[in-house]
Design goal:
The structure is a homotetramer of 360-residue chains. Chain A has 360 residues and is of the alpha+beta class. Chain A has a single domain, classed as Chorismate synthase AroC (Chorismate synthase, AroC fold), CATH 3.60.150. Helices cover 27% and strands 22% of the residues of chain A. Chain A has 8 helices and 19 strands. In chain A, the strands form 6 sheets. Chain A has a 5-stranded antiparallel β-sheet, with helices on one face. Strand 12 of chain A pairs antiparallel with strand 12 of chain B.
Chain lengths: 360, 360, 360, 360
């Protein structure tokens, strides 16, 4: 009811505040018999971890995951997996001056209105630190998807005004991670880096666009009419901090085409498999996978925390000037990549299990 | 599990195939004591109904709603409301030639892969006829929202290449409905009409973009971290047939801005209320309403059913040519307006009730 | 949230008031590909139907079920099945004198307190007429269970002071239905009948105990720790009108034994299958089926509606005398048999599908 | 789906194996603004803790609870509360000889059949140690119920053949805890103690019956038709390890009465409040509270683990003799008292919040 759970069969429950003792997640519905250890999860957390490069916050967190339940002798038991990550560099006192201030385009005001009180330390649970739990759970989901032959990867397509040429990849994790900005097109990544440095000097920030592609989904995943696969993916991605838009396949661009140009003709593969000649559908038709690669894009707004002074109000409604002092990312997109991948994996793993009950 | 339910407290369950006896919905969780009759629902169904203008399918359906339960002496009892709409112009035999054909960019192939069998008559439950149930339920949700002082309206911003000037309204239902294409800008509506006529002559179809605005939501609605209000809205809208993209507030466009330009400064109203100077947030911050108008846009792909011949395959994978003969919309956007409004109302009504349990 | 849905994967949503136009149910999650028609459902409804014998209410209802969706060419589509049963002998006006009276041990007072208004006609949705929807849905569940080789039957063990010898059967439906009181022990059935006739002459009513047995469940169904199979069965049975107690296996009696006498020793069958020598566990250990027959008993209170005058109060709290005039059962147990079976089938079918997702 | 969650609005998710690092629970849906600290929870855990008396297992666990999230400055934030209890005296190696043995009337065999593998150490998650998490969560629920004026207590009515005189109390926690067997009738408690000592000498065990009473519930809690309050209570209690039966109000005994004797006449209190003259209904009518005390009884089977040798089989189906060596309770009832109370509180707290959405 309070929105901290996600999924239907492969279902996660996250908890933890940004500057509390831990961030964590309980994964319920993980099938029994999966080989799993912390080593399967840690690499994804390392990708999301702060302090990886000059472009991300300098908060020092090792983000070491510990599995507290659900495993015995290296295999999942079918019981809940509880994963926790300690907050080591928690500094709640840093935020005392912000206790009664509503930072622009942050969730301070709205959480206060919702609950009547709030954890002002680093945004409490409104902080992007919450997404560490998603990434941990997503790593487990991805391992299960591996059993189905599904692979997925996301990358940065544009930061502010700097974009790479439009392209649906696929790009491997190695190609994406070659540059710390997680743009697989080297020249564009350099331009993005230069642009971000300029913004940082100015005390400003940028947003941008992420692409994601999934290969290997069999046809039949997705549950019309409300839990269409792209609708569930949309919700999953839009629930990530700072995400403002989601589109699948041809998306907003496709609305300029006529039907005759937009429709994906069915053809028979050389190996007899039915596929489509184009993929404007983004691998999903009527809310169900058709066996083609899944394709979607997501918009992330510019980071709200900036060094430039901004006018705002405090709890009493008095005018104040806000100037950020803490440790913050000038651009969230590179660190959002593992989060986008995690949410995608969570949706797909859940739908893979749901499909097991569709036929007699 | 099969995706036919929506909402958590105000929860709907829809049923019915396009050419079966009825389309229907059970609404569970409607609070007791709401004055309600068919007359509250019928006008919204009339807006969605086919055969309203030259731009929509010629299928003849009166779409008369009947309330089968949950009402006594004109008030809701707190028990489930079952609403049914008869399919009077059902012609399943019309679709016999399509029984084994996979129409391009339709859900024929994917439903077959999912369930192993399918209702080929007009797409069965993959048909947009299913949305009549949503509109009926949405009318009830809207009536409850009226008690909170919430109003909402959607309109057509662009059809194919013809757009009205960008603008967040608000537009009243009367302004929207003045032109059958539901674009409140008369000159643009005329251009759209001309464009659609040309496409119809060519046997082709168009997509476009819809805007929606909600006024009067109090601050505090929305459930982080996964059920952020814009994430739930996104899922709701993306679950509508043909919808391929969703964005809230500044959306994809906003990603070109820097943080200093994008942030919404808090100010105090003349009446002491806290509001924001701009509304790039689209009325939602951290997934929770902030009291400003909710703003979002949605992309709808061009109609898949066209008169122009298209190449495809049948169940056996043999090449076939598909030419639509049935009764179909050349553009779904005008009829999607009441559906977008209904899904929006369903999400908001549910969150209004959820908020009742947030505080001690 | 309002308690009108049951099940997780095989999930039902019921609706309808006792004297409204229909009683109905939407079944969501029925796997695609099940051969199904009204003929599979009607016999179970006929067993529950009023007016079958001298011992049940004289309300005349044919209880003809109609499937409104989810079927094509005789097979389930995987989409929601909507089943409706018309209320033909609805006589809401019969209850006008009871509009403001709170009948003893009925739900009049509590519904009023809950919702602030209520449907006073025959109890509205608090009436046992609501269970027709359960029986209809249960028939579908039973058909699916048949594919797993599961069979189940319930029977009347005791009515008031008249009991058959304790025995776990099994009894076939034919054996149970031989006597209209649904007690498979003929002499006891006759004593029950005589006792009921005496009570009817006195204007009084009786309760009693029902036994149920399920054969053929494979080991592995049930979901600890909260959705243990007997816990879900207990909730299912306790949710039937007038049910006041539930026990599984040795139940309350077994608490007099010591562990050494109560424990069920495991042995190996002649065909190598592991089974238990006794079945105090009632086929469920740790909340999961062990392959032995499921056994449980349920207590039903005496019918609240009696002809004898009773003192009560009205809405204003004034003393009144209540004397039943309507059409009512002197004993609900015979008609509760198909309801107990239906709820049992619903629980088991749901858990059968849940088990499909337990292992990698 | 895997049965580790309970509740709808006030919802808990438990995790942890008996001999893993922790037992824990995430509570989601706790309203914001509740004063809460570990000191509110620890006393309930201390009541359930092993090693309290000669009648309980000698496993040494302090069961110290730690709140990992959801609290700031002593008040709940409205975000998930994660509570963990370390397993300090975990001795997984103690159970190695039992790895492949199916203990009689334990869950070893069924868990193996369900998941294909299992944690053999002390039963893993099938162990009653799991209930520590329920007790911790129940303490939070009870604190919320305190705001509504609700109080509740359970006590031991019978152990094996030794019973106290039948009586619905109420008994305060102090009265119940006066004797370590948690029977508030001193002479009966002594007989129970003597009986248990005899059984222990014989290497045997006992079951029994617990009563529970709740005072102060306002009318209107409970959600017909499936989530009737006593049905939800029944499920809650039946989901506790070793529970085999549940009855509310007059229960099984009441089925011997006629309607005229069983019905609870409504009367008006001296202060104008409507109440019933008797309480065979156990405070619940039609599944909804009527303002009278809630009354129920629960049956707990004799402890399955006994020192006496028992015949069983191992994984390969070979005959084996099982003799318990570990640390186990000869009778679970005294320690089940706080668990029964916790589950009752969880159900009531959830329904209290659900009722907030029943009316316009």
């Amino acid at each position: 009811m309070r929105g901290n759970s996600f999924g239907r069969i492969f279902r996660i429950h996250t908890f933890g505040e940004s500057h509390g003792p831990v961030i964590g997640v309980v994964i319920d519905g993980c099938p029994a018999g999966l080989a799993l250890s912390e080593a399967d999860i840690q690499p994804d957390l390392d990708r999301r971890r702060p302090g990886q490069s000059a472009y991300t916050t300098s908060r020092q967190e090792e983000d070491t995951v510990r599995i507290l339940s659900g495993i015995r002798d290296g295999f999942t038991l079918g019981t809940p997996l509880a994963l926790v990550i300690e907050n080591r560099d928690a500094r709640p006192a840093d935020y005392d001056p912000l206790r009664d201030v509503y930072r622009p385009s942050h969730a301070d005001f709205t959480w206060m209105e919702k609950f009547g009180l709030r954890d002002s330390s680093g945004g409490g649970r409104a902080s992007a630190r919450e997404t560490a739990a998603r990434v941990a759970a997503g790593a487990v989901a991805r391992k299960i998807l591996g059993e189905y032959g599904v692979t997925l990867s996301a990358w940065v397509e544009r930061i502010g005004r700097e974009a790479m040429p439009p392209d649906w990849g696929p790009y491997s994790r190695e190609e994406v991670d070659r540059h710390p900005l997680r743009c697989p097109h080297p020249a564009s990544a350099e331009s993005m880096a230069a642009y971000l440095e300029q913004l940082r000097d100015e005390g400003d920030s940028a947003g941008g666009v992420i692409r994601c592609r999934v290969d290997g989904c069999p046809p039949g995943w997705g549950e019309p009419v409300f839990d269409k696969l792209h609708a569930d993916l949309g919700k999953a991605i839009l629930s990530i901090n700072a995400c403002k838009g989601f589109e699948t396949g041809s998306g907003f661009e496709g609305t300029w085409l006529t039907g005759s140009r937009h429709n994906d003709a069915f053809v028979r593969d050389e190996d007899g498999r039915i596929r489509t000649a184009t993929n404007h559908s983004g691998g999903i038709q009527g809310g169900i996978t058709n066996g083609m690669p899944l394709l979607f894009r997501a918009a992330f707004k510019p980071v709200a925390t900036i060094r430039l002074p901004q006018s705002s109000v405090n709890k009493e409604g008095q005018s104040v000037i806000v100037e950020a002092k803490g440790r913050h990312d000038p651009c969230v997109l590179p660190r959002a990549i593992p989060i986008v991948e995690a949410m995608t994996a969570l949706v797909l793993c859940d739908h893979a299990l749901r499909q097991r009950t569709a036929r007699l």
